[in-house]
Design goal:
Elements: E1 5-8, H1 13-25, E2 28-33, H2 41-46, E3 54-56, E4 62-63, H3 66-76, H4 90-117, H5 123-143, H6 154-169, H7 171-175, H8 180-190, H9 193-198, H10 205-208, E5 212-215
Parallel strand pairs: 1-2
Antiparallel strand pairs: 1-3, 2-5, 3-4
Helix pairs in contact: 1-3, 1-6, 4-5, 4-6, 5-8
The structure holds glutathione.
Domain GST C-terminal: 87-217
GO molecular function: transferase activity
Pfam families: GST_C_2 (PF13410), GST_N_3 (PF13417)
């Protein structure tokens, strides 16, 4: 059976979390790395909204939201139980934390990144807005090793690329910030084999037209 196709962008946090879930679930896809300034017509035909990631499954279903791709991956195979299937309310709880970050934290993070880039006087205030959400993660990680429990979950993978972005805005401040558990959690991912696989660099698909097999080894 043909492998699914993933249109992806190496440094996009949404594409990153889709690749994390595909990798963690053990799914294989054909990866097509793109640049936003030159989106392939093949991608725009299946998903005219033009955002990455986009997954086209073997039966030609188009999934063009990163969280839906993550859920699709774990619905196919979930050897490490990222969806915590035995607990009926677990997925609802995971999705509610993810929604808070996608709908609220992400906006504050974008403001914070802009303030830093353009030396805005609102930098401190923008960082503090982000910190309200980080404090919750720190508290979770002081109680267990991962965000929802002692096991990694969908939430960890969905949030990680955005926390990584936050950590890179004011590196020196972050390294001494009052979030030691969060730093440890993030470092664990940054140093993992999974992350190095997910961040591997491939030729742009439009240049090479060569599909790269990504995922389960
Ligand atoms: N809600 C979408 C957001 C994806 C998104 O915004 N991706 C950015 C790149 S990080 C994008 O493709 N932007 C399109 C553009 O700038 O043309 C998802 O979760 O997949």
């Amino acid at each position: 059976m043909a492998l699914p196709i993933l249109y992806s962008l190496r440094n996009c946090p949404y594409a990153m979390r889709a690749r994390l879930a595909l990798y963690a679930s053990g799914q294989q896809v054909l990866l097509r790395d793109i640049v936003l300034s030159n989106k392939p017509a093949e991608m725009l035909i299946v998903s005219p909204k033009g955002t990455v990631p986009v997954l086209v499954t073997a039966d030609k279903q188009v999934i063009d939201e990163s969280l839906s791709i993550m859920k699709w991956a774990f619905s196919q195979t979930d050897p490490d139980d990222y969806l915590n299937k035995a607990h009926t309310s677990a997925l609802v709880e995971m999705l509610s934390v993810i929604a808070l970050f996608d709908n609220e934290f992400k906006g504050h993070l974008e403001k914070y990144r802009c303030s830093k880039r353009y030396h805005e006087p609102s930098l401190l205030e923008d960082r503090q807005q982000c910190e309200r959400y980080l404090a919750d993660l720190e508290s979770r990680l002081s109680q267990h090793q991962y965000l929802m429990s002692d096991k990694p979950s969908l939430t960890d993978l969905a949030l990680m690329p955005f926390i990584r972005q936050f950590a890179r805005v004011e590196r020196q401040w972050y390294l001494q910030s009052p979030y030691p558990n969060l730093r440890q959690w993030l470092n664990g991912y940054l140093q993992s084999k999974m992350f190095s696989k997910v961040m591997a660099q491939y030729p742009m698909w439009l240049d090479s037209k060569e599909d790269v097999v990504f995922g389960a080894e």
